[in-house]
Amino acid sequence: MANEVKLYGATRSPFVCRAVIALNLKGIKYELVVEDLSNKSADLIKYNPVYKKVPVLVHNGNPISESLVILEYIDEVWNGVPILPQDAYEKAQARFWAKFMDDKCFPAVFKAVISHGEEQAVAEAQEALQFLENELKVKGSKFFGGDNINLVDITATFVAFWIGAVEEALGIELLPKDKFPKLTEWSDNYVNCQAVKDSLPPRENLVAIYKKRFGKA
Amino acid sequence: MFKKSVNKGMEKVKLFATWSSPFVKRIIWALKLKNIEHEIIYEDLANKSPELLKYNPIHKKVPVLVHNEIPICESLVILEYIDETWKDAPRPLLPKDPLDKANQRFWAKFSDDQVLPSFYGYIMKQGNEKEEAKETTLAHLKRVEQLLSEKKFLSGESVGFLDLVFGWLAENSRPLEVVTGLKLFDEDSFPNLCAWRDKFLEVPAIKESWPDQETLIAKYQEINLSKGK
Question: ipTM of this model?
Answer without folding.
Answer: 0.96
